[in-house]
């Protein structure tokens, strides 16, 4: 792991209060009035120039949401959210949707530059940026630019903001939107269906291997603004796509809400690899501020022999409530979940996965690594469900928790149900402290305390880091180092 | 080189006194054996010398090259050249032995103001040292000490010692759990490191290891004190008559 040295340097150089992405972009914005009502939903829909059916879909969801109650089963605590004290739409002025790069406000381009996200295709092609990744950049409620669209089009791949897709590919949206996470699914998903503002849409047609990595960078900039993104990825028969999302937000004293929905559909023999590096502002040392991250992510292995894998590195957010799941509907389909969840300071994480085995010979694999430091609470909550007709289903689960210090908590809550005799389920769980023995041993070899901890933690998460696309593996390791800064007592 | 004066130390957690007025001097180039029955404080002494937090020094001093080391943490002591070969080497999952070696070597170089090793230079040093200790290169790719046999663990300790080039090597019961072949390999590794400016403290219960690593001085530790010192003949006497005689005479 060559990144260890970099992790160490980052750990040394950055104080916990210096969240690197905490700056704010000063830009003129176009906002909806504060609060949530049918009128606000009409406002969003009109801004997006949506067809009537889309507006109806949103209003139905809204009516439904009004009858629902906020879930309380997760092991997280926070003051009640006032949903009328949030702005549901904020967009940089004069941006109605993605335009060509020349038309993008230079202030926005500078923002993404500061975040280290390559938007200028020329530079990427000229080798200024090392890897070729197509990017959709979502700023508050709108997508500001999507790169490499033309090149992807040649391969038949559609990669655009979901707002654009609703206008340009209504037939695909009608067929797939809400088909994995229905508008009735859960409190936050239903809210998202009513007010979602932007996100990415990916369609990889039959037999096509997407020629490059796709990624979306989400940035919440405006004060008191919620971000409700919606992402839909479809891989037709035999298609392959690897997609990565990254998220950051300015450092603010008040909490901000992020409630996203991601839907993945894999048809026969298709494969979708979805990676997340989540680095929303986690709040400060006293636990003030930070993002409330309530996310519904689900993949549907609809076709035979299809495969969906979720890889996540979660280091940010004050509260994380997130369970990327796979519905293994097609025979011989496979679901994977690889997760690293790091909590420090006052962060609370309740995250895990659901693997729902419906088809024959379906298999799933869950590798979860939780690292808790400070006074944080870190819960793995995972469900493995083998249905009656899922002959020869197999699951392997391994959940490891690592505690740093003695004021944090790690919890593992597995739910396992098998309704078919032939199921094979393996579950392994461990909780360990970075032992004084390990720390003393490494230090006795001349490795200073913080570096010793970074080394041991990097060893602990290695299995998951290996699942990330190369370019992001290094970034993820750095991020884990930064997140644990200040965790040594 | 190493001077321990009237050292008193206890377990931090419960205050049990383990070391009770210990005096010891080790000169450069010397191989000093510390022997004693179980529970006499042998392992504790090795931890206190290397700076483990679990022990508190209540009286006396330890100086190394004329400088007190009591205020230094384990990493600082290591970069001053103090190395402890553990009786029970610790497993570090997910961290390849090779990677651990590289981080440790470079951290020590950094602490001494030297440049980091280049990768080819590092690889060459590891290869040479591993060959000498008959270590299979495949072992170096495995996570440190994870699933290593007793012999492999001890060899990995000596490998680290060879690569980190300490000036004071403390071997804590290095012979425990080794068969005779492994013991010879380990002893050869230690003997190869003998030099006029490097001292070695061999902590052992039995005479066996001292047949292969021949000491200049032998000290008997009992109830936290050195009760008798001598040359290698003393070790043989202990082997023949047991500790009882020495303890009685001292009492």
TrEMBL record, chain A:
Recorded family membership: Belongs to the iron-sulfur cluster assembly SufBD family.
A Pfam family hit: SufBD_N
SUPFAM superfamilies named among the record's database cross-references: Stabilizer of iron transporter SufD
NCBIfam families with a match to the protein in the record: PRK11814.1 (NF008773), sufB (TIGR01980)
Domain SUF system FeS cluster assembly SufBD N-terminal: residue ranges: 150-210
Domain of life: Bacteria
Any GO BP annotation: iron-sulfur cluster assembly
InterPro entries assigned: Fe-S_cluster_assembly_SufBD, SUF_FeS_clus_asmbl_SufB, SUF_FeS_clus_asmbl_SufBD_core, SUF_FeS_clus_asmbl_SufBD_sf, SufBD_N
Annotated ranges, domain SUF system FeS cluster assembly SufBD core: 218-460
Annotated protein name in UniProt: Fe-S cluster assembly protein SufB
UniProtKB/TrEMBL annotation, chain B:
Keyword Nucleotidyltransferase in record: no
The ABC transporter domain, residue ranges: 2-248
SUPFAM superfamilies reported in the protein's UniProt record: P-loop containing nucleoside triphosphate hydrolases (SSF52540)
One Pfam family hit: ABC_tran
Keyword set, alphabetical order: ATP-binding, Nucleotide-binding
Signal peptide residues on this chain, from the entry's feature table: none
ATP-binding keyword on record: yes
PANTHER family cross-referenced by the UniProt entry: ABC TRANSPORTER I FAMILY MEMBER 6, CHLOROPLASTIC (PTHR43204)
Sequence similarity: Belongs to the ABC transporter superfamily. Ycf16 family.
UniProt-recorded name of the protein: Fe-S cluster assembly ATP-binding protein
């Amino acid at each position: 792991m060559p990144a260890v040295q970099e992790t160490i340097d980052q750990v040394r150089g950055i104080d916990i209060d210096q969240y690197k992405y905490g700056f704010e972009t000063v830009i003129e914005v176009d906002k909806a009035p504060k609060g949530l009502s049918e009128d606000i939903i009409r406002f969003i829909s009109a801004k997006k120039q949506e067809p009537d059916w889309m507006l109806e879909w949103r209003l139905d969801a809204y009516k439904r949401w009004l009858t629902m109650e906020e879930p309380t089963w997760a092991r997280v605590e926070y003051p009640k959210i006032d949903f009328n004290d949030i702005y549901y739409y904020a967009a940089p002025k004069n941006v109605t949707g993605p335009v060509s790069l020349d038309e993008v406000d230079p202030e926005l381009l500078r923002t993404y530059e500061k975040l280290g996200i390559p938007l200028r295709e020329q530079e990427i092609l000229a080798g200024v940026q090392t890897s070729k990744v197509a990017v959709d950049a979502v700023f508050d409620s709108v997508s500001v630019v999507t790169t490499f669209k033309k090149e992807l089009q040649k391969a038949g791949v559609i990669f655009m903001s979901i707002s654009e897709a609703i206008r340009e590919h209504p037939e695909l949206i009608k067929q797939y939107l809400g088909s994995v996470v229905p508008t009735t699914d859960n409190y936050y998903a239903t809210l998202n269906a009513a007010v979602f503002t932007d996100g990415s849409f990916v369609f990889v047609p039959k037999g096509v291997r997407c020629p490059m990595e796709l990624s979306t960078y989400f940035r919440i900039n405006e004060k008191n603004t919620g971000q409700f993104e919606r992402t839909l990825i479809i891989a037709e028969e035999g298609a392959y796509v690897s997609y990565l999302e990254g998220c950051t937000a300015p450092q603010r004293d008040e909490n901000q809400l992020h409630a996203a929905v991601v839907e993945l559909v894999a048809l026969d023999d298709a494969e979708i690899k979805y990676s997340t590096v989540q680095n929303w502002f986690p709040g400060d040392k006293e636990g003030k501020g930070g993002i409330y991250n309530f996310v519904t992510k689900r993949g549907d292995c609809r076709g035979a022999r299809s495969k969906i894998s979720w890889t996540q590195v979660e280091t940010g957010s004050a509260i994380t409530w997130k369970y990327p799941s796979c519905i293994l509907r097609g025979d011989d389909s496979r679901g994977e979940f690889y997760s690293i969840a790091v909590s420090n300071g006052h962060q609370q994480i309740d995250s895990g996965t659901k693997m729902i085995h419906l088809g024959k010979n379906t298999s799933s694999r869950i590798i979860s690594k939780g690292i808790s430091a400070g006074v944080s609470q870190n819960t793995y909550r995972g469900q493995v469900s083998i249905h009656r007709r899922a002959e020869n289903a197999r699951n392997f689960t391994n959940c490891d928790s690592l505690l740093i210090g003695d004021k944090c908590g790690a919890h593992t809550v597995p739910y396992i149900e098998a309704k078919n005799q032939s199921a094979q389920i393996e579950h392994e769980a461990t909780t360990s402290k970075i032992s004084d023995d390990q720390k003393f041993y490494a230090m006795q070899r001349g490795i200073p305390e913080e570096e010793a901890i970074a080394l041991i933690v990097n060893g602990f998460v290695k299995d998951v880091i290996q699942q990330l696309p190369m370019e992001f593996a290094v970034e993820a390791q750095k991020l884990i180092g930064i997140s644990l800064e200040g965790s040594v007592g | 080189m190493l001077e321990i004066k009237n050292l008193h130390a206890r377990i931090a957690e419960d205050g049990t006194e383990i070391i009770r007025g210990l005096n010891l001097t080790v000169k450069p180039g010397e191989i000093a054996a510390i022997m004693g029955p179980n529970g006499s404080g042998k392992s504790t002494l090795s931890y206190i010398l290397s700076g483990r937090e679990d022990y508190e020094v209540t009286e006396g001093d330890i100086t190394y090259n004329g400088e007190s080391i009591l205020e230094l943490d384990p990493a600082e002591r290591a970069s001053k050249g103090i190395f402890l070969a553990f009786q029970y080497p610790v497993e570090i999952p997910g961290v390849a032995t090779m990677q651990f070696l590289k981080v440790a070597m470079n951290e020590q170089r950094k602490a001494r103001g030297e440049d980091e090793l280049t990768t080819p230079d590092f690889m060459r040093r590891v290869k040479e040292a591993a060959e000498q200790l008959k270590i299979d290169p495949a072992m170096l790719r495995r996570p440190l000490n994870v699933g290593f046999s007793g012999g492999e663990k001890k060899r990995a300790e000596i490998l680290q010692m060879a690569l980190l080039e300490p000036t004071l090597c403390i071997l804590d019961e290095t012979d425990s759990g080794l068969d005779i072949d492994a013991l010879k390999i380990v002893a050869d590794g230690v003997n190869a490191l003998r030099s006029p400016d490097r001292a070695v403290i061999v902590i052992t219960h039995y005479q066996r290891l001292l047949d292969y690593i021949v000491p200049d001085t032998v000290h008997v530790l009992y109830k936290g004190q050195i009760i008798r010192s001598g040359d290698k003949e003393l070790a043989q006497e202990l082997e023949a008559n047991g500790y009882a005689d020495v303890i009685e005479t001292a009492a």
